Every structure is written in C-alpha cells, then in structure tokens.
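ingest -> validate -> predict -> emit
validate: passed (alphabet ok, no gaps, 80 aa)
predict: started
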Amino acid sequence: MLSESDFENPQKNTEVMGDSELKKWLVEYVGNRMAGDKYVTTEMIVSIFAHEFPEFLLVIAEENFMRGYEQALIDIGDKK
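emit:
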C-alpha cells in the first residue's frame, strides 16, 4: 500500500540559489518573509506563492492535472 511519503518530492527541500535576477529577488523576498531566513527552499517559495499569489499556482496545478489526465487516457488507450 502506498503512503503519503511515497509521493514526497525530494526537490522541495532543496535550497534555491539566486543564479538569475528573478531568482535573486525571489530568494531575498521569500527569505525576508520567512523571518529573515537566508536558506530558502522550493517548498518555502511555494508556500509564499500559495498565500500571496494563489491564482498563479492554480493555473500551474490545473495545467499539470490536465496533462496528467490526458496522459492517463493515452496510457489506457495503449493497453486496449
């Protein structure tokens, strides 16, 4: 039986490096919002976006869902 930990994305706890202007700004912004933390992870960025810009994440989630659904239909069609 699968558990929740089977679906954990190991990259969510990876530190994000400011190697572009946008990333530098975003890492600084998120770090400041998270009590001045200099170590910023992808999970922290998603948390800030979910709180402050949920419509952005909703578009990404919807697109991801539709692509997954489409791929499932393709996979089912291949098995028949």
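The chain has three helices and no strands.
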